[in-house]
Amino acid sequence: MLHRYVFLNCLKYTLGLTIGLVGILQIYLLGDALFSKRAFLSLFFWSLPVFIFYALPVIVSISCILVLRSLQRRRLDFAFFSFGMSPFKLSLMFAPIGAFLAILSFILSLHAYPMGQSRLNLSKEPGGVIKDLWLVQKFSDKTLFYHFGIVDLSSGNVYDVSVLELKGYSITRLSQGKTGTWLGKTLKLESAKVLDLFSGQEIVRDLTYDYVVLEKVGQLAKRPEELKMTELILLTSIGKQIGLNHRQFLREIVIRVLNSLAVFVCSFSAVAFGLSTRSWKFSFAIFVAIFTLHWLSLNVFSTLLEKTTLSVKVSLLTYMPVFIVLTISLYYLRKLRRV
Hints:
The protein has about 350 residues and is α+β, with helices and mostly antiparallel strands. The protein has helices at about 1-30, 35-75, 75-80, 85-90, 95-110, 110-120, 215-220, 230-240, 245-275, 280-305, 310-315, 320-335; strands at about 130-140, 145-150, 155-165, 170-185, 185-195, 200-210. The model has no long low-confidence stretch (mean pLDDT about 80).
């Protein structure tokens, strides 16, 4: 019965806070007079999965704190303690809602979040230089992954180009060219090395590909946050196999997983401290602290993986303080249980 009360009330507060924050987002977007009605609706719709994905740790944590506040104001926590329920066991009542919404956040990160990011990223400049660019071209029987070290959108010159040909999830051919040109829809690579991964045969020849008009490349260029999780995993695996930069994709995978995990960690830590101190205000202060720590740790991790050669495991140590706070909260609950 208590499980159901906590779960449903947390879910009710979560929905209410989400609707309220979405309303604020709508007002914010309406403040820009440059949007037509159709453009506004499109922007608003595609901003929702991005907004909810980032806001969910905050929304769920505040919802759990509000339920905890309701229990403490009505002194229901003391009533449960008098019947032999420990603070630790009471805190476990909040675990299912945190876990459920953490899973929901991760599901959002698979498809809806990258689609939202992709649709929102429509204002790229047509000129300039793009570095470390990945593009995908799909056919009925194969898929081509293009990796460009540098693309000069003004002149059409390209440098350090690799083209991966996949059938299913197997790489069948790898073509690499140091220089080339991209004029109109035609991409030409000069003296490219072509390696057949089935036969092991390698030849050198000029290659020509028909793709999109160069002027559209700025809009097609995808950042890691615009890629689906399956694409990120595939590009990470391919990058490892052929020695291309894959750390940016691995970084995005870890960030999505940790942000989803933060839904549970932030909410449960806040509730645990609130129960151990019998103060929902202290619970809120802990939430602010651990959420701030979460974002700082993510930014430091991202910077280390992008700017240094440290391994992912070493870089992930920057996120350890978040789990230390969770461990401390569990320790105090266990200690209170023995009092």
